[in-house]
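Tokens for chain A. Residues wanted.
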């Protein structure tokens, strides 16, 4: 029985997904089997080559964006430290959101902090109180509020909630004491579980023009 000798592929072979074995070229299929290169259909080779080429560019671009973000945050942090040390000034508010702008007012960089909000067990208390309100309100009264409550607690999927709709509930002004208790329970249920820092870039042709985002998003890049 011939010994299987898997050789070290060249850089070109590795990039093409080719594995040399006993002097012959193979490719792994999706099940991990070694398939002789000559047995791989031409259309599968073309598709494989295209996907590998695009993926290589995507990985390079992803690494470049990561380096860019790192340099950007370092530069902004250095400016913040300089202003704090030299002038006792601080850009942004207590939450950490900041805006930096060129002297001519045509370019700006914004740093925004978004909190991740989850809800504790008090939310179930709020749901019970709101259900009581819905039961006593007639079917014809407050249909828009009924719709918001239904969306907020996503009644078709047990245990799930719609955060944006729950925040909408908090903006409604209703005198019912149970409603007020429910809103208090929602506020007490809110828990910040983390936060994420976003950096956004904008430019405009003149002061009279609106800001245009400089998009670093594959789904939106090049969109009008």
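Reply:
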């Amino acid at each position: 029985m011939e010994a299987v000798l898997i050789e070290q592929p060249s850089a070109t072979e590795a990039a093409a997904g080719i594995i040399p074995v006993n002097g012959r070229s193979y490719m792994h299929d999706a099940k991990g089997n070694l398939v002789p290169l000559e047995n791989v259909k031409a259309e599968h080779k073309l598709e494989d080559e295209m996907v590998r080429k695009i993926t290589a560019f995507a990985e390079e671009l992803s690494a470049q964006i990561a380096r860019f973000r790192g340099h950007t945050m370092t530069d902004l942090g250095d400016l913040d430290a300089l202003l704090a040390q030299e002038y006792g000034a601080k850009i942004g508010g207590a939450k950490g959101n900041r805006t930096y702008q060129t002297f001519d007012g045509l370019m700006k960089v914004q740093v925004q902090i978004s909190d991740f909000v989850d809800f504790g067990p008090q939310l179930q208390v709020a749901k019970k109180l709101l259900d009581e309100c819905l039961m006593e309100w007639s079917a014809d009264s407050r249909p828009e509020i009924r719709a918001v409550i239904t969306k907020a607690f996503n009644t078709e999927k047990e245990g799930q909630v719609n955060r944006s709709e729950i925040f909408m509930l908090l903006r409604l002004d209703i005198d019912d004491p149970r409603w007020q208790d429910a809103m208090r329970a929602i506020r007490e249920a809110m828990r910040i579980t983390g936060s994420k820092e976003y950096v956004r870039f904008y430019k405009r042709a003149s002061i009279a023009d609106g800001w245009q985002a400089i998009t670093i998003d594959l789904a939106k890049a090049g969109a009008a």
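The first strand starts at residue 18 and ends at 21. The chain has a mean pLDDT of 84.
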